[in-house]
């Protein structure tokens, strides 16, 4: 009887354990047999769109510039602040930003590097050897579902990949489904929904490896929540098993 009870107890405990295959990313076995260990997935250069927020920074090392800051830097507009939203320019509905000295400057449909080169060339009439940096301010992704810290996250680079994005949210939780992560993307007025498998190496060549600003990542829960070995309520199980044995012995004794 004791052997049967112990066997049942061990079955209950280990049937509830979470396997590594449910929580590990990029496993060796892939559904795509043609994939090796080296991948090519070119990043799409992000193009400026209407209502984007742009940070424009101009530097010049000429002492003749009266507006130059002590660091040798000229900020075109806004206040001298570490909060980029206070010194950014919003692209209007016509695709323009309004810069000091230059006035209306068309930027929509261009990369930030292209805009920086064009502005830099125009400013040569006003500054000696200017250097221009243009970057996005309001690029963001939203992460919801089974992650440590769901929310909306901003990033300053042109691109961010899905693992970097999940890192911002504190990673997928123990009970999040890594095999069917939902990506919701709006493009040209159309809303698209797709799923990616983060346990498979094919994610590296997926169109969703690099995210677009405005993408929503939804991590679904696993079909059933199972106990990990550290979450098994041993005291409850042992108490129930002991009670059952006492009842069984009492019945047999009578």
UniProtKB/TrEMBL annotation:
One Pfam family of this chain: Poly_export
Going by the UniProt record, its keywords in alphabetical order are:
Signal
User: Where would I find the Polysaccharide export protein N-terminal domain in this sequence?
Assistant: 42-135
Q: What are the boundaries of the signal sequence?
A: 1-24
Name any one GO molecular function. Answer: polysaccharide transmembrane transporter activity
Task: From the Swiss-Prot or TrEMBL record, give the protein name.
Answer: Ligand-binding protein
This chain's source organism reads Marinilabilia rubra
